[in-house]
Amino acid sequence: MKISIPSVFSIQFENEFSDAAMAIFRHQAAHCAPYHQFISNLHIDPSEVNSLADIPYLPISFFKTHRVVSNTDSEEIIFSSSGTTGQTQSRHFVTDVTLYEESFNRAFKQFYGTAEDTCLLALLPSYLERDGSSLIYMVDALLKQSRNLESGYFLHNHEDLFHKLAHLKQSGKKTILIGVTYALLDFLESFQLDFPELIVMETGGMKGKRKEMVREELHELLKSGFGVDAIHSEYGMTELLSQAYSSGNGIFECPNWMKIVLRDTNDPLTLLSSQQTGGINVIDLANINSCSFIATQDLGRLFPDGSFEVLGRFDNADIRGCNLLVQ
């Protein structure tokens, strides 16, 4: 099966999403060996799966123990998860990295406009200090697209970042500061701003550097420290080639080729309706060449318009780099 990039990323309507998802499911059920085995162990016949509601979701932990691919091509890049010492990393074998590039470029443009017209500042020390980060791959590409010469990375040089932000405030340039949570808090221990036009996007995760905080408390600290009305967030992970974004209040929206479905926490094969709390399942049609149907270890609430809120993690789940704050 060859599903073209435009047919996935140009989806506009629910029936287009369903048709593409069903086609991808049938292909992956036959050609993704770990997914095929998982479905077989559930005693599900893929030919009898005729709607999205009947599709089984592969536990995300399979990316730690298996090579989850649905074609015979060699990988062009391997994305790996962060994790504390001793944890097994998830690995996503990406056989066509242009799918990831198309996904993050289109999603960024959908939610924030073109990278070319944005000054992008990245405070991502823990990601820069390791290999295999899909977030760094994305930020690298967006930085290269930015026509603003002041765009760039910051490690621990907080004073330089402060002066840069103060200058950008005066210049009136559209600015996005994307940062790992603990690094943003570290910055605010020494510097405070009043920059209402700034977009502050936290990527989640204390990386063992600080105690986890509830989202409301964290966002109040960040809003006060940067002088902004809302804190933006990104919901993404190693195992996905798409990201959802929040423009405030912890409510995320997906691009048109991505969808969130909730499952019963006691019966993972039972799906829930909106406005209930359950385990987050993700349909990511950009994962054409791996598995598009992933059962994450996150807990969430789904709203009727398809937006969702992340509420925490299942007990004993690894704390990893996806955007989430335990509540």
Could you walk me through the main structural features you see in this protein, from its secondary elements to its overall organization?
It is a single chain. The chain is an alpha/beta fold. It contains 10 helices and 15 strands. It has helices spanning about 5-10, 15-30, 35-40, 60-65, 95-110, 125-130, 135-145, 160-170, 180-190, 215-225; strands at about 60, 75-80, 90-95, 120-125, 150-155, 175-180, 200, 230-235, 245, 250-255, 260-265, 270, 275-285, 295-300, 310-315. The strands form 2 sheets. Strands 1, 4, 5, 6, 7, 8, 9, 10, 11, 12, 13, 14 and 15 form a 13-stranded mixed β-sheet that branches. The chain has a two-stranded antiparallel ribbon with strand order 2-3. A hairpin with a 7-residue loop joins β11 (about 260-265) and β12 (about 270). α2 packs across α3 (about 35-40). The chain is globular and about 60 Å long. The model is unreliable at about 315-325 (pLDDT under 50).
Characteristics:
21% strand; disordered C terminus; two-stranded antiparallel ribbon; 10 helices; 13-stranded mixed sheet; single chain; 327 residues
Helix content: 25-40%
Low-confidence segments, given as residue ranges, are: 317-327
Compressed to H and E, one letter per element, the order equals HHHEHEEHEHHEHEHEHEEEEEEEE
Q: Give Rg in angstroms.
A: 20 Å
Number of strands: 15
How far is the N terminus from the C terminus? Answer: 42 Å
The major pleated sheet works out as: 13 strands, mixed
Per DSSP, the total helix count is 10
Specify the structural class: alpha/beta
Q: What's the rounded overall pLDDT mean?
A: 90
Beta-strand fraction estimate? 15-25%
Shape: globular
